[in-house]
Amino acid sequence: MLFASKEEVTSQLKGILGQNNGSVTLENTQKLRDDLIETLVENSIFNKSNEIKGLSRYLIKLAALELGIVPSSIQGLYEAMGRGEYSGFTVPALNTRGLTFDMCRAIFRSAHKVNCGALIFEIAKSEIGYTFQPPHEVVPIILAAAIKENHKGPVFIQGDHFQVNAKNFALDPDKEINGLKDLIRQGIEAGFYNIDIDTSTLVDLSQPNVKEEQRLNFEVGVKLTRYIRQLEPEGVTVSVGGEIGEVGKQNSTEEELRAYLDNFNEKLAEKNPGAKGISKISIQTGTSHGGVPLPDGTVADVTLDFDTLGNLSKIARDSYGLSGAVQHGASTLPLDLFHKFAELNTSEIHLATDFQNMIYDSQHFPADFKEEIYKHLRVKFAGEKKEDMTDEQFIYKTRKKGFGEFKAGFWNLPKQVKTEIGKELEGKFDFLFQKLNVKNTQEMVDKTVTLVKVKPNLENEISACK
Length: 466
Known about the structure:
- This protein folds into 3 domains: 6-68, no CATH class; 71-359 and 415-450, TIM Barrel, CATH 3.20.20.70; 364-411, no CATH class.
- The chain contains 21 helices and 11 strands.
- It has helices spanning 6-13, 29-46, 50-66, 75-82, 100-113, 125-130, 135-148, 166-171, 173-190, 210-231, 254-271, 306-320, 339-343, 353-361, 367-380, 391-398, 402-405, 407-411, 415-435, 442-448, 458-463; strands at 17-20, 23-26, 69-72, 91-95, 120-124, 153-163, 194-198, 239-243, 280-283, 325-327, 348-351.
- It is globular.
- It starts with 5 loop residues before the first helix and ends with a helix.
């Protein structure tokens, strides 16, 4: 149900959630989980009133903090990994493109089964755009899922691929950087205390040496890292990731890694010796985002360079104190490869497209709704279809945009449909958490991560809705 007025919000909260001078009192936690939380989520996304939408987000955040559910930075764990205190697992970073509330519920259920604390919820800059999920919207959804599944403790939410557009940068560097800074500000205000800045798009392979190839990458990366540090809430050190190899391009090398990190660290220390740098480094090992669709819509096999991944991850830890290397574009890899990431001490792995595929291809997903989405995509995004593309390839590459174009339709799917798809996703998370060896990482997280309860600002939540 959508609230018609703030008075109706107050009425629905009665006996469940009391409001008092910028805080809430939990009067009936079970009713909050059973009856109220999904209504608050629905209003936080779809209410036409910015005041009610913002208030719903604000109340979810306050309730989460009251229950000990705290948006947090994974920095402490990653620093401990960089010191060699923990190893043998890979942190999954799971992109929340669609059916976000139900997907996040499934993630928490899987995590609870194996006492997993080392996991990240994330959304990329591009995904924010085409799924219509800005930071101030997606954070309350994740926290509401935590409330619904009786979670407690830190929740790591990450801005993935906060990426510089190379063409736009070439035309107007200040405009492009300022736009990215605005997204960073929104993210941190919302609760993104983990941010992957991607300036690898600025690498220029035409330069005479590796340092010059990487120059814009590390110089702009330092600029954005300094900006992040200026915005950190008191007591929070945002975990910042860097990147040396644009995903889908040529594989990374040790020379590139050292050129980037040596010069990044030197430049960062120029104005502020001892400043916190990055906690991990994304590299390219042969994958591409979403995989490469074949004419029949299936995905081509990928040859992933595990030697490069293992070698660069070790150098990142041993020589620079980072948690290790990060693997992107891996969700469509063969299932029998996933155990290798933990064995090679890969720091983090980003997974997205396979969850999207599972949703669309589920036997429980309504065929008529799917055809409605595909028909719309064929018309609206016809200009994106290349001459040599089959319809299957076009749909595979484009259906991610259906999550935004049909946002309300996904939310309003029958409860049983969402329940069954949630079970299927939960099974995949069970598999991934086992293969990535993140079972029993909750204790590591508890030892290394400091909980900092940053209270939301109601005016900011309402303003972000405009």
